[in-house]
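Attaching the record inline, Q. Sequence:
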Amino acid sequence: MTASRPAFAPLVGTFIRLDPMLKSDIPALFSAIGHPEIFAGGYGGGPAGYRDTLDGFTEFAESYYSWDSGNVYAVRLIGGEHDGLLVGTTTLGDIDVPNEAGHIGWTAYDPRVWGTAVNPEAKLLLLGSAFDAGLGRVKIQADALNERSRAAILKLGAQFEGIFRRDRPRADGTWRDSAVFSIIVDEWPIVRNGLESRLAAFGAEPVALRTRQADGTR
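Structure, as predicted:
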């Protein structure tokens, strides 16, 4: 199969849909992920990258996401009382058609949907988009210090490739080591089946938001 650039179009699942994100979505995205615990594990350059105002977050978002080169998505819930609510963002970026490669990253969700069907279905939709377009390898990575994200990536069925040392600067000026994982097309049927099984375990009810306390705990 000859690879092509994955179409940048809405991707619709059972629990969520991924819509091409617009800059007009930034205020809703700030409501969803503008919390210190999102950045604590290394997102957006780590804790020093956190912005506690919409103006500050807008400045961050306009420079952080690959608006012109990546497939940047807004993650929205489907069904129930929160139908259409923006609960996060994710991107299929670094698309390299000649080398049949891409990178799923820049991903963050409202803490109220952590541990729900949102992340596995987002990965199912994005990986399907990538492999259906003929890509052969999709990279997923995290700050090497972020054990929570690393465990979640492994749970998807991705293979750990190693640590890229001194890979990129954090917002505080220190240097991040990146834990790099990948899924290749030969592994996709098994990974897809695993994700579908995880989603089936959630049943048919729409995603319910978990309670978020004033101090950010869940």
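The radius of gyration is 17 Å. The chain is about 30% helix and 30% strand.

More tomorrow.
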